[in-house]
Every structure is written in structure tokens, then in C-alpha cells.
Amino acid sequence: MKLSFIPFLLFLDGVNLQVSQSPHDLVLSPGSPMKVTCSVAVTSDPYMYWYRWTLTDGLAHMFTSVGSGIVDPVSVDGFSASRPNSSHFVLESQSVAPSTPAVLYCSWSIHS
Ligand SMILES: *[C@@H]1O[C@H](CO)[C@@H](O)[C@H](O)[C@H]1NC(C)=O
What is the pLDDT of residue 35? Predict the structure, then answer.
């Protein structure tokens, strides 16, 4: 297998251990599909977020979900997100780009 041009996608857990991402890290060849699931165990029905850090843009917000089945925006740069239930927030891409190595962060907050 030729490994000439591979983006490295690393998924870090939250500051505390109350959020987890599965798988923890991924190395993909360009054009591969990607799916990462973030889960929160400590609270019911939190707001959940995906952020992305890149060299060019720094830390940028991607998706917010205020509840099961609700995600905003619909898509960002070939990524989409879904909230299958109150505790899980899924980030997906049909085809990862070679030019966008990134660190992806999942976080949550209690809604008021
Ligand atoms: C929530 O969705 C995730 C991802 O689809 C699934 O693995 C999990 O079992 C679901 N949990 C509940 C409580 O339905």
C-alpha cells in the first residue's frame, strides 16, 4: 500500500473524562469515509458540539445539537453530523480530503 499522502485525524477526549469518542484516533487515506461517535454518560440530554482545529483556521465550531434528531448546520466542508439519541453525537464524512489534516473535538454542555 502506498502511504504517500495521508491525512492524520486525531480525536481527543474532553478535558474531563465525561465525554468519550469512538474510535479515539484514526488514520485514513484520502477518499476514505469517516465516522466518529461521541458519547456523554454523565448527564441526560445535553447540548453537544463538534469543533475542528486546523493549521489554517485554528479552532472553529462545526456542529451544535440541542437534542435528539436536531443538528445545526446540516453540513460543513463535506462533513455531516447526526444526533441519533440524547447521549450520542455522530460526525461523518463520505470522503476525507487529503488537504485537511485536523484535530476534531467533541464537547457538551448542560442546557438551561
Ligand atoms: C444511541 O446511538 C448510538 C449510535 O447510533 C448507539 O450506539 C446507542 O446504542 C444508542 N443508545 C441508545 C440508548 O439508544
Answer: 92
Nearest CA to ligand 1 atom 3: 88
pLDDT value, residue 15: 44
Quick one: pLDDT at residue 7?
Answer: 41
Residue 4 CB neighbours (<10 A):
7
Q: CA distances (Å), 39 to each of 1, 24, 99, 105, in order?
A: 33, 12, 28, 12
Give the range of the structural domain holding residue 103, as residue numbers without chain letter: 2-109
What spacing in Å lies between the alpha carbon of 85 and ligand 1's midpoint? 6
Domain count, the chain: 1
Residues of the chain with pLDDT under 50: 1-17
6: domain CATH number is 2.60.40.10
Pocket test for ligand 1, best of 35, 37, 83, 87 (most atoms within 8 A of CB): 87
